[in-house]
């Protein structure tokens, strides 16, 4: 029996936790859910019309190099370079990339003891600055979960934030 296509989900590619996806298909919307302390990184090249979305859990792969080798998307220091390389494999260019961030919240850590969200944010800021890549827009921190969408057709990035009725546009392109 063929898979059932639910209306409104025909063109969505779901990016799971510790995962990434890249596309140059204008019919695709990359979506990731449950960005709490995790960080969502969306990149888009408006000339090549290629983009990608990363859902990274942790800042630093030195915590578990074997896991990082098996799944670079789990960590920001390995996931972001992998995301950018894969976008460039589809004719994207680093100098043209538009970068958008979401997540990095303080979820299930009310005392701030672990500060995973803040550490994730700091790691990506340092990594992008080191590579002279500018962040176009971000919606990070706080105490809420977010869902992030990247439209390959337009480069538009939108967020659904827990507790808010309307989506937020980080980039409307």
Word description of this protein:
The protein has 173 residues and is α+β, with helices and mostly antiparallel strands. The protein is globular. The relative contact order is 0.20. Mean pLDDT is 91; it is low at 1-6. Helices cover 20% and strands 33% of the residues. The protein has a single domain, classed as 60s Ribosomal Protein L30, Chain: A.
Total number of helices: 3
Helix vs. strand class: alpha+beta
Spans of at least 5 consecutive residues with low confidence: 1-6
Overall pLDDT score = 91
Query: What summary fits the major beta sheet?
Result: 5 strands, mixed
The whole-angstrom Rg is 15 Å
As a percent range, the share of strand residues is: 25-35%
**Ends distance:** 39 Å
CATH class descriptor name: Alpha Beta
List the strand order in the largest sheet. Answer: 1-3-8-9-10
What shape does the CA trace take?
Answer: globular
Residue share in helix: 10-25%
The arrangement of helices and strands along the chain is: EEEEEHHEHEEEE
Task: Please name the CATH topology.
Answer: 60s Ribosomal Protein L30, Chain: A
Supply the number of structural domains: 1
CATH architecture: 2-Layer Sandwich
In total, how many beta strands?
10
Give a quick rundown of the structure.
This protein has 173 residues and is of the alpha+beta class.
């Amino acid at each position: 029996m063929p898979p059932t296509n639910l209306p409104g989900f025909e063109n969505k590619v779901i990016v799971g936790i510790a995962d990434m996806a890249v596309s140059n298909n204008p019919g695709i919307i990359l979506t990731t859910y449950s960005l709490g302390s995790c960080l969502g990184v969306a990149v888009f090249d408006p000339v090549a019309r290629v983009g990608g979305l990363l859902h990274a859990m942790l800042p630093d792969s030195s915590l578990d190099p074997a896991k990082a080798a098996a799944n670079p998307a789990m960590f920001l220091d390995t996931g972001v370079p992998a995301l950018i390389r894969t976008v460039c494999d589809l004719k994207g260019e680093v100098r043209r990339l538009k970068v958008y961030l979401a997540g990095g919240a303080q979820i299930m850590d009310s005392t701030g003891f672990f500060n995973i969200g803040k550490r994730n944010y700091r790691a990506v800021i340092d990594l992008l600055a080191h590579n002279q890549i500018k962040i176009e827009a971000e919606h990070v921190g706080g105490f809420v979960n977010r869902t992030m969408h990247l439209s390959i057709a337009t480069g538009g990035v939108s967020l659904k934030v827990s507790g808010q009725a309307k989506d937020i546009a980080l980039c409307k392109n």
